Amino acid sequence: MKDLFGKAIYDFQTHNSPEDIITETSISEEDEMSVAYLFRSYDEMPKIEQKALQLASGKTLDVGCGAGSHSLSLQNDRNLDVTSIDISEKAIETCIIRGLKKAKKTNILDFEGEKFDTILLLMNGTGIFGKLKNCNSYLSKLKSLLNPGGQILIDSSDIIYMFDEDEDGGKWIPSDNEYYGELIFNISYKGEKEEPFDWLYLDYNTLQNAAIANGLKCELILEGEHYDYLAKLSL
After folding, report:
1. pTM, whole model, 2 decimals?
2. What's the chain's average pLDDT?
3. Which residues are in coiled coils (predicted)?
């Protein structure tokens, strides 16, 4: 990976002529995303993210922390002990510049040695699973990092609305996917293209079934305005 997402974050932080990130998926056209959005304050966050931060308590792990905005809110406004991880080296460098005390470049599947009261996976937290078949390995890993009484707060969207309907009200789903929420994501930044990567959107029922299969309780906490939701997984 070229870490273009991380470069964009780092450029914004260091005032190095940041540009919009161009995103495209296997089912959607090119779209521009302002890097500034990743640096939003608590008041600028969607209700689902605000709710997750309100529910966070105790020792917290922020998975896929990006520019660190969720972590900073918890560390600075709530005085929580937060560890922030991301696979992007430049994103973690940015988090450290922004004042996060515990920011590490690592993949959640490789993370060991600590347990947490709250684990956050926000901004389509199921995305990092990549494919439906990977849910068990990720949920099993997350479960292993929980303290007794701990919680996993995760958000996603049911993207069935993005597919065309036939005359009977059914949906036209491409047959090459095991599950309609499996997308291939492409990112471009400053004329460079990132390697395409798998990204997973999970509808709530599928997440709930996967959670139960891994010995986790699953609760629907909040539904957003656009097929998105926040769920809480616990032991």
Report:
1. 0.95
2. 95
3. none
